Structure formats: C-alpha cells, structure tokens
C-alpha cells in the first residue's frame, strides 16, 4: 500500500506541475489584442450603467471593436482623441474613465507598433464597427448563400 500511495502522490504532483506550467504561458500578441479589445468594450458598458459616468461615454461614437476590421485603427484614434479632449472636464477625474483611456491607448500602441504583423484584417467595413455582429442569422444583414 505505501508504494501505491507514493505513485499516486507522484502522479498528482506531476499533474499539478503540468497545470501550473500550462497556465504560465505568456499571452501572444494576438491574444493580448483580443483581450484588451474585450476589456475596452466591457469598460464602456460598465461606465454607461451609472448616472455619474454615463455622460462621459455618451460623447463617444458607438463602437464595436473588431480587431479583424481594417478600420479599427482610425476608430481607436477617434476614441482616444475624444477621451483626451472632448469629454466633459469632470470626467477626466474619474479613475475608470482614465483606465478606459489608457486601455484604448494601449490597444492602439500594441496594434500599430508591437503586433502590426500579427493581426490579419478580414474586413474593411467601417460601418460594421458601430454595431455588434448579429447573434442570430435573422438579425442585421441578410445572409447570402451561394
């Protein structure tokens, strides 16, 4: 029984080591772009829910961040300009608005300097960046079948 317990303990230790190593893998440039774009959209949704911060994000144009759309860089640049210059002065003091501005700046910098070769643009439809993709085929644009 003691050899069996030692083998079982060894297997458990190896399993935990493998799991720890798997979780320690650094994110790729592409995965960081995806994560940051989701964080930005979540931050905007969060800020829209509160009376004090909703005026801060209401000045922003609607934006659905699709990192595979070639219009993303100009849209990010527009949002960054608005967050830095056109938001009401009281909004600049809110930490969450500052965090949003920093996330937009970071995503723009990562996409334009660090990951510019890692992201593949599959679309150039700038209007599509103002609306999230339809969740059902019946919503939004018609599906064209050949």
From TrEMBL:
Signal peptide start and end residues: 1-24
Pfam families, per database record: CYTL1
GO terms under biological process: positive regulation of transcription by RNA polymerase II
UniProt-listed InterPro entries: CYTL1
Keywords (A to Z) from UniProt: Signal
Alphabetical list of PANTHER family matching this protein: CYTOKINE-LIKE PROTEIN 1 (PTHR15974)
Name of the protein in its database record: Cytokine like 1
UniProt organism field: Latimeria chalumnae
Lineage: Eukaryota, Metazoa, Chordata, Craniata, Vertebrata
